[in-house]
Amino acid sequence: MPPQAERCFGIELLKSLDFDPERTVFATMELPWKLAEPRLRSPARHVEFVKSMERARLDEAASALPPVDSVIGVGGGSALDFAKY
């Protein structure tokens, strides 16, 4: 059985988030990232700024990302949809 996604949320979540920067991708947009980045305990190494939800763009972006254990969506809408993809 494949591992189940863990859904977490809350105002203090970013401060408590423990992640491996080499094995985590953040999917976000410019404004949410500006607000979120300073609250992380460790600097992110892989950030994907979502610009389009077209299937070809999703496949291109996903194939360009390094192998990771976690994808974290920061923001709403397209960023969260990309993280789920």
UniProtKB/TrEMBL annotation:
Protein name, please?
Alcohol dehydrogenase iron-type/glycerol dehydrogenase GldA domain-containing protein
Species source reads: marine sediment metagenome
Q: Gene3D superfamilies recorded for this chain? A: 3.40.50.1970
Q: Lineage of this protein's species?
A: unclassified sequences, metagenomes, ecological metagenomes
